Amino acid sequence: MIEKHKENPIINPSDVKPSMEEYRVLGAFNPGTTVYQDEIILLLRVAEGCKPKEGYARAPVCRFESGEAWPDVVEFSMSDPDVVLKDTRGIVYKSQDYLTSMSHIRLARSRDGIHFTVEDKPFIAPHDDTDRYGVEDARATFIDGKYYINFTVVSQDSWATALAVTEDFKTVKRKGIIFHPENKDVAIFPEKINGKYIALHRPNNSGFGKASIWYAESLDLLHWGNHNCIARPRDNRWESMKIGGGAPPIKTKEGWLIIYHGKGDKSLYSLFCMLLDLDDPSKVVKRAEEPLLIPTERYEKEGFFGNVVFSNGMVEKDGKVFVYYGAADESTCVVVTDVDSLLNSF
Q1: What pLDDT, on the 0 to 100 scale, is given for residue 1?
Q2: Which domains does the chain have, with CATH numbers?
Q3: Do the beta carbons of residue 342 and residue 322 sit within 8 Å?
Q4: Do residues 126 and 102 touch, judged by C-beta distance below 8 A?
Q5: pTM
């Protein structure tokens, strides 16, 4: 039905220039995507850590001063008793948490959807206290001549979803947080339905259930309401922990097509197809029983976080559907298919 491209991974960390001399790129993955002036543009999540320094624990940080922001490094002597290594992803110093990696959004451009040129500088990076610990996992939606980009922001207040807008992928205007902590996996539909903007989102569930896919409506893309849970994890090995939405949906004759992710047994991530009603996307029409994609290749099973395939970007171009996905939280891959093949997966 679909095949992983023979040139996967199409983008590796080594293909990306670090944003400063003391950083090293750990991952280039989970890209949002859109088409602009006949180019496919990826909004890569680029995760950077610090170059190692013997005897020190080091972490990337963002400094803010007088309305400006810039990347920097904080380091602590390993002989200092106040240094605590939480795991490979965190450092605690005198009760202050630091992440060992920090992400930003970087653009990559391609004519054929396979071979990309990655830009040298970040497109969206931390800029204030709302995203002090990084920006992650962008989605892009084209509506009425503008490209709306939502992305996860990480801070001392946990993670939330923010919105930005661009018309040329040169300048970008931030609109602020649109889904408060803890909420991510937001996918905005490419057109209004019944006079309203529509989005899927994934609030955290620390209560009686598991994180699920929710529906919301808005009149201005900033203020969202009429929240409704439309899909919950099923009792199977693929979705035993949680589920979440993926890229903005594609409109088909049978319904709004989405590809969502499930986190299952042993923290394995897989991808599934789902169809939502064209006139009322809060209604699920079909939901695939079997995964569309699972980790099978070495680059998907081994990496920064193994056994992960995660998609937040798919586009239609020249009769094809390009489904981009992050592999093992490290590299970017693609499958090339078409709408009919995806509809036949149910």
Answers
A1: 58
A2: 13-343 (2.115.10.20)
A3: no
A4: yes
A5: 0.96
Distances in Å between the alpha carbon of 124 and those of 13, 44, 136, 168, 291? 18, 10, 9, 14, 32
Q: What is the pLDDT of residue 89?
A: 80
Does residue 148 register a pLDDT over 80? yes
Q: Are 139 and 247 in contact (CB under 8 A)?
A: yes
CB 332 within 8 A of CB 31: yes
Kindly report the average pLDDT of the chain as a whole number: 96
**DSSP 8-state symbol, 342:** H
Number of residues in the chain: 346
Query: What pLDDT score was predicted for residue 289?
Result: 96
Q: Provide the b/e sequence for 149-160 (b: ≥16 CB within 10 Å).
A: bbbbbbbeeebb
Smallest Cα–Cα separation from 213: which of 258, 267, 178?
258
The separation between CA 252 and the C-alpha centre of its own chain, rounded to angstroms, equals: 23
Residue with tokens 């079909």: 286
How confident is the model over 328-338, as pLDDT tens digits? 999 999 999 99
Question: Token match 């695939």: residue?
Answer: 288
Beta bridge partners of 180: none
Q: What residue type is 70 in one-letter code?
A: W
Cα distances from 326 to residues 29, 31, 212, 267, 295, in angstroms, run 5, 7, 21, 15, 11
pLDDT score at 87: 74
Which helix (H) or strand (E) segment holds residue 299: the answer is: helix 298-301
Task: Express each pLDDT in 28-62 by its tens digit.
Answer: 999 999 999 999 999 999 999 999 999 999 999 99
DSSP 185-252: EEEE-SS-BTTBEEEEEEE---SSS---EEEEEESSSSSEEEEEEEE---SSTTSSSEEE--SPPEEE
